[in-house]
Amino acid sequence: MRTVDLIQRKRNGEELSPEEIRWLVDSYTRGEIPDYQVAAFLMAVYFQNMTDHEVGAMVDAMIDSGERIDLSSIPGPKVDKHSTGGVGDKTSLIAGPLAAAAGVKVPMLSGRALGHTGGTLDKLESIPGLRTNLSIDEFREVLARVGFAVIGQSESVAPADGKLYALRDATATVESPALIAASIMSKKLAVTLDGLVLDVKVGAGAFMKRQVDARRLAQMMVAIARRRDLRAQALITDMNQPLGRAIGNALEIMEVSQVLLNSGPEDLTQISLELAARMIFLGKITETLEEARDLATRLLVERLGFMKFQEMIAAQGGDPRVLDRFDLLPNAQHSYEIVSPRSGFVAAIDAEEIGRASAMLGAGRKTKEDSIDPAVGVFLEVKVGARVEEGNVLCRIHYNDTEGLQDAIDRIEDAFRISSTEPEPRDLILEVVG
Fold it and tell me: DSSP alpha helices (H): ranges in 49-104?
């Protein structure tokens, strides 16, 4: 086969065979195809999409590029949770510990910052000493002992996704529904699971801007799961404004701690509890979803999720004291306040602009080789619907380097819209698929 022929056919909207997709994935994983050709293929997929058969073939090839993680020897239901990516979305680090505290085994294969969105691995690695590059044996041991463990792609687990994930970020092809579905499901299906809860974001700060596209993506992933006898549900949730108040890696760990102590932002707490409840329900810990919601809430109030997260941090080499002592986390040297230019109501906070500004400060990557500054980011002092007076602080920028600072300030100022009329409240959870 020739790579250029596959690029051309996909550019022209043709369907590739499973054998052709497997050859492309395997060859790229082995380093036999250069980045620039696979970048061209990704762009062709971005514009022409892929059929369900092609996505399924890509998922299989990406799983088979590495080792499958067999967890069948560990007792208890195994349920994972994954988000399609948002701004300020740290729900995995809240829902996971809550579900684990309920008796669910939560084996998470997570990703890094992609485009304007944050990554669970980057957030966790802002905790001093914490390792997400566990060996498979270490991953099993932490999961069996704690009930909650998080790792990323590696040379042994879904290595094809690791390479493609980074290349998508650097080639503006992140938003492709087919590539999102293939990336997420290849990570999830490489692990022994009984259930999977998906959080499909839609709106300004999501890769899916329209609800119809988010629904299609949710249906695609749920169908892939069910064809492999995996219980799955997807929530379609609003991402027009950042979730919670913190955007940036260490800042988000601080907010995770606050939520698990039942003192976090209402929107982040609400969706985290619902995701945890769905995980508990799919794990058959309770007979009904309502019972699962009650259990998740009780675990939050009793701080058992907080304790479970501390256990996981310690088990993966981190310092669990960071959840009580934020001075042990990376903290930026400087801050800058964005103030309201007029009195009125906060009518909108463009989540994508906030995410891009945070990335400019160093919380995200411009190229796949870039490192991340765990300390920087944005903290919102107000949310949509808040009444503000002229000069009130809208948010604080936390930064270490002045490079990119002015561009970030300009983006954040443009992201806030102040209106004379109070906006209508928006639902956070828009739909359930599956």
Answer: 52-64, 92-101
> Amino acid identity, residue 210?
R
| Rounded distance between C-alpha atoms, residue 220 and residue 200, angstroms | 11
User: CA–CA separation, 115 vs 133, rounded Å?
Assistant: 22
Measured distance between the N- and C-terminal CA atoms of the chain, rounded to whole angstroms = 38
Which residue matches tokens 């002592």? 325
- What is the rounded average pLDDT for all residues in the chain? 95
Per residue in 273-282, pLDDT (tens digit) is 999 999 999 9
Give me the count of residues in the chain: 434
**299-330 tens-digit pLDDT:** 999 999 999 999 999 999 999 999 999 999 99
- Please give the backbone phi and psi of residue 377, each rounded to the nearest 5 degrees, phi first: 155, -160
pTM value is: 0.92
Bridge partners, residue 246, by sequence: 379
b or e along 105-116 (b: 16 or more beta carbons within 10 Å of the residue's beta carbon)? bbbbbbbbbbbb
In contact, 209 and 128? CB cutoff 8 Å: no
- Where in the sequence numbering do the catalytic residues fall? 82, 161, 168, 183, 187
* Tokens describing residue 70: 């067999």
pLDDT score at 175: 84
CB-count exposure of residue 68 (10 Å: 0-12, 13-18, 19+): middle
